[in-house]
What we know:
The chain has helices at residues 2-11, 19-26, 30-38, 52-63, 78-84, 88-91, 122-129, 140-153, 179-200; strands at residues 16-17, 44-45, 49-51, 69-74, 94-101, 110-111, 114-118, 133-136, 157-160, 173-176. It has a seven-stranded mixed β-sheet with strand order 6-7-5-4-8-9-10, sandwiched between helices. Helix 1 (2-11) crosses helix 2 (19-26). The chain is an alpha/beta fold and 201 residues long. Its main location: cytoplasm.
Amino acid sequence: MYLRALTSLADDGTTTCSSEELAASAGVNSAKLRKDLSYLGSYGTRGVGYDVEYLRYQIAREIGVTQDWPVVIVGIGNLGHALANYSGFRSRGFRVVALLDADRDRTGETVAGLDVRAFEDLESIVADNDVSIGVIATPAVAAQSVADRMVAAGITSILNFAPTVLSVPDGVDVRKVDLSIELQILAYHEQRKSVSSEVVS
């Protein structure tokens, strides 16, 4: 959250910021911010604040996003298109090197400056680009077989957008993003707000 806040400040042209300003941007209080940043060292200047670009670099280095991380995206439907066109990946150290799809009608299509390639090319792409991170944006029914191929090819971290739970061996990290569940959580909170307002009134 701090990296995102600092990136936003930098994009707005802010060069220095106080702990209060950064805390507000990150959605935390300034005491928590100072405590969290103390684990990285002392990067603030009393009376001046934080150098936005320098602190952003230090946090990015600490969490491993200063290096170039090649990424492959499998499944170039609507969601795959959106992910391929997301500019935030590159600004945070993630470079999409290939877009893959099992649908032959999609191969050769250009999306975000990359030609969609056949899923059969996965192994050679992973080897040629030293890819360790894969993104799955396929229908649920295909996700497990895609994950299996990714793991066999040498990918050790998977971001899964398919609405299904993946089974992977030890040593492979999976992060699941289920947009419908996130919407359900928001709907739950809206329902609680509605009930609370009815009780108050």
